[in-house]
């Protein structure tokens, strides 16, 4: 596993496009969080001064951060698509990696990216909470830190879906378009056409439901799915989906010629 | 001799096209096997299947008497079709990835880059390389871990004449070290110089598999003839028993026969044909290949 990560590091460490995209992600996140005070939803100021205090800031940051995870999904599609367009997936196989290892290395990479993004979110939330909170005690500071686990699972879930789509289509452009279309509206159209309660467990919805609209305490009376607790059924469901996408990716790569 | 690769009834179709049909072949340690065949004969598909890149429809293959997985591929240096590299990485970094996958150290990288003539460009990104340079790097990648077996599919593609000569010498040197090599090439002259055995394929089938040394033992001679009276010469040659006209090369007629050149000369002189050129030589691999594949 360490060997596969080392190989992935060699692949991405010299890839300027990857570095730019990751840097773009962190810059976009920083800019977004610095301007959170100005966010409003109708008459409600969603991210007011109160919401950036401990312990609410964890959920706040995780909720905003989940929208940026789409970018991480595109990064993964780019990395996998490159392996096919450059013919390096084939070359790596010839050199001695197994088909399973080809897939495992990319899933390991996406877990590492999700971890780095989560650590980044941790520091962002910590700094913002520190700057906006009047009362700072360790129990208050870390009360809702479990929302970062939701954020991590969200990133892993979404990137796993993206990786699966990338292995399915192999072409970066087609896979990116399908991924965005699926996450943004295809699954929503499907859910509407079925119109049943179980559709909330569909992949994209389940991943999104990990961190639903924050602050039941502040945004009461609105017809929104509100969430006060990080722990929910979707955590297990997303782990299941990520594993399923991983196994399906292996199956696709195992069955096809490279 | 130890069996390195055993292919049994391997077949692969692409839609209606049968790329490889029931191919069986055994490669032994130290053998330098030339895989010949016209375009579309199934050479690359065969190599792709034994490297697990293409899934066979039926049949099987085994490396080192049983191992079919990653372990065996790590012991093989391969150049298949075109060079595949991360274009945004340097030659050095690409070879580091190759070594890491093969679980070998990086200490041989600089040596092999020097050997292949790319050391001065080791830190340049591959996307700036010419076709020939990429080909050289692909050969470097095949050699960098000092593998026991080399599989080279058209290794001189895109190289200039000096590059072709360099690579030919390099392959000869490697072959002389007793390594096993499978070489697919259109350059029959190269194959003839380097290989100990040849397998000829056409339409996915193995037409012939034999050692090149058997050619030397063969009693069939190839004789080149020339005379001032060219038309008459051909007519007479066709009528002569035990003589087969192979082809005409400018002013030369090339025949195949078991008779010695002196006897042919005497027989023609009896018929009033006096030769201006008479040379006995071995049948070239190219002549045999064209004959086998009906080209």
The largest sheet of chain A has its strands arranged as: 1-2
- The ordered H/E elements of chain B are EEEHEHEHHHEHEHEEHEHEEHEH
Secondary structure class of chain A reads: mainly alpha
Report how far the terminal alpha carbons of chain A are from each other: 23 Å
The CATH class assignment of the largest domain in chain B is: Alpha Beta
Number of helices in the DSSP assignment of chain A: 10
Strand order of the largest sheet of chain B: 5-6-7-3-8-9
Residues in helices of chain B, as a percent range: 25-40%
**Helical content of chain A (DSSP H or I, runs of 4+):** over 70%
| Computed CA radius of gyration of chain B, to the nearest angstrom | 23 Å
Radius of gyration of chain A: 19 Å
Taken as a percent bin, the fraction of beta residues of chain A is under 5%
Q: Tell me the number of helical segments of chain B per DSSP (H or I, 4 or more residues long).
A: 11
Mean of residue pLDDT of chain B? Answer: 87
Portion of residues in beta strands of chain B equals 25-35%
Major sheet details of chain B:
6 strands, mixed
Find the count of extended strands of chain A (DSSP E, 2+ residues).
Answer: 2
Explain the overall architecture.
The complex is a heterodimer of chains A (258) and B (295). With 258 residues, chain A is mostly helical. Chain A is built from 10 helices and 2 strands. Chain A has helices at 2-13, 16-34, 56-85, 88-95, 99-132, 138-141, 147-169, 172-194, 203-209, 233-255; strands at 213-214, 226-227. In chain A, helix 3 packs antiparallel against helix 5 (99-132). Chain A starts with a helix and ends with a helix. Chain B is α/β, with parallel strands linked by helices and 295 residues long. The model of chain B has no long low-confidence stretch (mean pLDDT 87). Chain B has 2 domains: 3-215, Rossmann fold (3-Layer(aba) Sandwich), CATH 3.40.50.300; 218-292, Alpha-Beta Plaits (2-Layer Sandwich). Chain B has a 6-stranded mixed beta sheet, with helices on both faces. In chain B, strands 11-12-10-13 form a 4-stranded antiparallel beta sheet, covered by helices on one side. A 3-stranded antiparallel beta sheet of chain B has the order 2-1-4, with helices on one face. The longest helix of chain B is centred in the middle third of the chain and has 16 residues, at 161-176.
